[in-house]
Amino acid sequence: MNHLPLIIKREYLTKVKNKSFIVMTFLSPLIMIALIAVVAYLSQMNNNKERTIAILDETGLVSEIFVNTEHTTYSILNNLSLDEAKEQVKEKEDYGLLYIEKGSNDSKISKTIKFYSEDTPSLTIISSLESKIEKKITDLKLQQGGVDIKKIKASKTNINIAQESFTGEKTSKIDNIIKLAFGGIAGYLLFMFIIIYGNMIMRSVIEEKTSRIIEVIISSVKPIQLMMGKIIGTSLAGITQFAIWVVLGGVMVFILTAIFGINLDVNTPQQELMQQAMQSEGIEMQVQLAMQSFFNLPISNLIVAFVFFFIGGYLLYSSLYAAIGAAVDNETDTQQFMMPILMPLILAVYVGIFTVIEDPHGTVSTVFSFIPFTSPVVMLMRIPFGVPIWQQIISLVLLIGTFVFTVWFAAKIYRVGILMYGKKPSYKELYKWLKY
Amino acid sequence: MNDLLVANSVSKNFGDFKALNNVSIAVPKGSIFGLLGPNGAGKTTLIRIINQITMPDQGNVLLDGNALQPNHIQDIGYLPEERGLYKSMKVGEQALYLAQLKGLSKQEAKSRLKYWFDKLDIGDWWNKKIQELSKGQAQKIQFIVTVLHQPKLLIFDEPFSGFDPINANLIKDEILQLRDEGATVIFSTHRMESVEELCDHIALIHKSNKILDGKLTDIKRQYKTNTFEVGLQTPNVDEVTKIIQDKFQVLPATFKNLNDDLKLNIKLNEQDSSNDLLSFLTSKAEVHHFVEVIPSANDIFIQTVKNN
User: Fold this and answer.
1) B257: Cβ–Cβ under 8 A, 6 or more apart, which residues?
2) pTM of this prediction?
3) Which pLDDT does position B285 carry in this prediction?
4) Is residue B1 predicted with pLDDT exceeding 70?
5) Cβ-Cβ contacts under 8 Å for A134 (sequence gap 6 or more)
């Protein structure tokens, strides 16, 4: 008799109807968004503070480049000695004093500029001052050397190497970023999913043990059916939760930007810097490239592989979580068995982040994308860079083979463990259970 | 074929530990079969094998003449000793779920549950959560769930634990009624008075071996020592005692009756009948009390376990 649908239904409904599950589902995106909003608001507050920077320019060469902005006022001091200027800045409680000493000649000027302030000045302010002065002095020097600045500006060229594979696929730098993002999100999503819902499965197995209903249930169904029902039901609940999160998150981001959107436009020093950088390359070009590289991704391959590796990897780990739940009596005893599960998972994420970025088809990332315990995460990260289908298939076959083995192994532990009470088993005992 | 359940030389090892060694039992149809034994003797293992929770290493189990197979779970109702329910699930939902796992359709399960809930007068519990019920109340639900699918074979492991005397009696009557309606019951307990009260047949398992089985009355007959409890009234106690002691094996007895009698346990000589003893006694004194000593299930249990 197949009770699997019945068990899945019960597991799903109990999870979904559970109060803390409902609260978590609706509250955590709110908390996340609130957190982001608070951080954004605070950093904006910080940058909105108006500052006055006094400038004592003995050379008289650079003071003209300081133009007041919304948050920063530059006050140019004239005919003061350094000490007098310092005194004055202190009295007025200005942010700081930029002092450009009249040096022997222009080439030395760069070494004699100082910034005095009460506290350590902000990094962004210093670098913005530095870049302004750098630019001016470079121009000055070029002029002194008899170079026409207009000509230099006119002859400045922007190089963007068009990359193309031998088969004619076009790639670019931004392409790589998009690929990394997709692979990274897929791999990280799987990692999070395994940890959150694997734990949930484990807790629900422990609950059945502590409430002593387990023997009643398994006099009606096979333990492996119960285990699979639990895994599938919990995953469906997880997918439901994830879907709600995505929808809620999307809606809330939309609402937030609609309400606070205008406020996000203010020019903070960081944004000023960003904009400078962006302008040099041409933002429209960037967007276009990004769109193009998105469509260049092996999308259908990505989706199919995502589904298979996600399911395979998730089932592999969740069966192990179920086995741990069956082996122990309460959650505090799970620690010793959790480490061997978490290690390969964390390793997979690190390998993914450090080696796939560096060289997606290098030896390390290739090897780890075949090892079943790391392959789901690493392979998902590699696929956007184009992995031959035969490699994907071999990796998937290995994964499924290992999955069948771990389910068999977990079912054995599960079958014995659910009826064992009162003692914390050792690895040696778990090994013995396999032979019961 | 009058046996509903037959276990043929069943053995089971857990690692180096032998949980069952060549145990055979036969449970007659329509009987209440007491499965007895000290803690850790192997009773639960045998019950789990019958429920197909664990598989025997050797031997086989037949239900109604057929080797156990997966769809037999519908024919068995099992109330384990370690029992519980999902704490946060509602009573009704949970009972429906467990009934469906036993193969009942949802409608069928619902109408039968309604019958039982009315019978035990607990209809208003349907929407309560298990954690709101007391232990005894939860046990009632478990009892209903065990018998709901009308199995041929009912297995109760310590069914009365957690019940007050009134509810224990209620459940006992239900068990007897189910037996009368044709169910066969395997009953595992340490409470010998309920064995005495309910069981027709017993099997005693000790240290993984079956050391005794059969009809309870047969076993009692086998264990009786032909001893009679006797209360006599006579003016010269010492003399009469001496006369009896010369002829029979005598032990002092303690029982309660109205007179301050001479109380003795007298073992019958092999060639004598109880009438011979009685006429001998009537000739010596006035007999107020004459009862054959029948070994209790408790005595049999302790004696057999100690001797093995």
Assistant:
1) B231, B288, B289
2) 0.74
3) 86
4) no
5) A110
**How many Cβ contacts (< 8 angstroms) between chains A and B?**
68
A427 lies within 8 A of chain B by CB: no
Query: Tokens 């990394």 map to which residue?
Result: A180
Element (H, E) at A76: strand A72-77
Specify whether the CB–CB gap between A113 and A133 falls below 8 A.
yes
Residue B305 domain-assigned (yes or no): no
Contact assessment for residue B189 and residue B158, using Cβ atoms and an 8 Å cutoff: yes
Taking the CA of residue A322 and the nearest CA in chain B, the distance in Å comes to 18
Closest chain A residue to the Cα of B131, Cα to Cα: A211
Minimal Cβ distance to A219: which of B14, B53, B84: B53
The whole-angstrom distance between B39's CA and the closest CA on chain A is 15
Q: Which residues of chain A have pLDDT under 70?
A: 1, 46-48, 103-110, 163, 165, 167-173, 260-297, 422-423, 435-436
Domain range list for chain A: 50-151, 172-259+267-433
Among the listed residues B10, B32, B21, the one whose alpha carbon sits nearest the alpha carbon of residue B216 = B32
Q: Name the strand (E) or helix (H) holding A43.
A: helix A19-48
CB contact under 8 A, B76 and A222: no
Contact B15 A215 (CB under 8 A): no
B215 and B274 co-located in one domain: no
Same domain, B140 and B236: no
> Tokens 């490699």 identify what position?
A391
Q: For residues B113 and A40, what is the distance between their CA atoms, to the nearest angstrom?
A: 58
Mean pLDDT of chain B: 88
Tokens of A228: 């699979």
Same domain, B161 and B37: yes
Q: Which pair of structure tokens corresponds to residue A341?
A: 């599960």
Contact yes or no for B98 and A217 at CB 8 A = yes
Count of H-run helices and E-run strands, chain A:
18, 6
Partner residue opposite A211 with nearest CB, options B52, B78, B85? B85
Does residue B142 sit within a domain? yes
- Distance CA(A30)–CA(A275), nearest Å, equals 31
pLDDT score for A422: 64
Same domain, B111 and B11: yes
Quote the CA–CA distance of B58 and A250 in Å, as a whole number.
61
Cβ–Cβ < 8 Å for A55, A85: no
Residues B202 and B89 in one domain: yes
- Looking up residue B250, the CATH number of its domain turns out to be 3.30.70
| Alpha-carbon gap: B9 to the closest alpha carbon of chain A (Å) | 19
CATH superfamily of the A50-151 domain: Periplasmic binding protein-like II (3.40.190.10)
Domain region containing B11: 3-221
CA distance A336 to B142: 35
pLDDT per residue over A150-203, tens digit each? 888 888 887 777 767 676 666 666 777 777 888 888 888 888 889 988 999 999
Q: Which two tokens stand for residue B149?
A: 């699918």
Q: For the domain that residue B195 is a member of, what is the CATH number?
A: 3.40.50.300
Q: Do both B233 and B285 map to the same domain?
A: yes
Are the C-beta atoms of residues B244 and B251 closer than 8 Å to each other?
A: no
Same-domain check for residues B184 and B205: yes
CA distances for B260 relative to B167, B171, B234, B256, angstroms: 40, 41, 10, 9
Nearest to B71 among A1, A208, A213 (CB): A1
Decide if B70 and A222 are in contact by the 8 Å CB cutoff.
yes
- Domains in chain B, number: 2
Task: Count CA within 13 A, CB hemisphere, residue A10.
Answer: 23
Looking at the complex, does the CB of residue B145 fall below 8 Å from at least one CB of chain A? yes
Tell me, yes or no, whether B182 and B252 share the same domain.
no
The whole-angstrom distance between A247's CA and the closest CA on chain B is 29
